[in-house]
Amino acid sequence: MESGSKPLLYHSEWCRSLRPIWLLAELGVDFKIKAYKWDDLQKPEYLSVDPGGRVPILEDAGIKMKESGAITQFLAEKYGKGRVTLPPGTPEHAAYCQWFHMAEASFMEPGVAALFHWALDSAKDPTVKARALKCITDVLQVLDKDLAHKGDQQYLITSHPTAADFMMGYPLVMMQDLQDIYKDVTGF
């Protein structure tokens, strides 16, 4: 495991590692990225970092961990100094926990399913395309209803970004990239 004073994040293009990258950049933390092409994650060099060939992996001061949500939470708590987390026991913290976990639990599944069908070109099947669009529309409606009462506020919970915003940002970027599916729900 590499060590040093800077956190090291193993990354591959358009992966969930964007979450901790965005967070570290927002916090102004000096960190290193070791980027790999998707196909290189199964080569011996990377398999020595993670035998499963998965990203992201974080190495920080002797700690090695995986899973973008866990990494994002760890980094927010370690480096955020309360700027991107909210005090436990408050209504804001409850909303923070909800959105932080909803990003992966509810938003990623339809996005990944749609991306899978889109990448395999099965989105040309009108039934598959309609089902994927309904799943994406359903989750975006939840977000839209929650944000509707917040006026000009740019972030989910407060007037500044929290780690929950970074968690939610990735599925929204991923869904936006599905142009032929997402174009019908861009009003959200």
Automatic annotation (TrEMBL):
Q: Where is each GST N-terminal domain found?
A: 4-83
Going by the entry's taxonomy, the superkingdom of the source organism is recorded as: Eukaryota
TM ranges: none
Q: What is this protein called?
A: GST N-terminal domain-containing protein
Pfam families xref list: GST_N (PF02798)
Q: Which organism is it from?
A: Apatococcus fuscideae
Q: Which InterPro entries match?
A: Glutathione-S-Trfase_C_sf, Glutathione_S-Trfase, Glutathione_S-Trfase_N, Thioredoxin-like_sf
Q: Which family does it belong to?
A: Belongs to the GST superfamily.
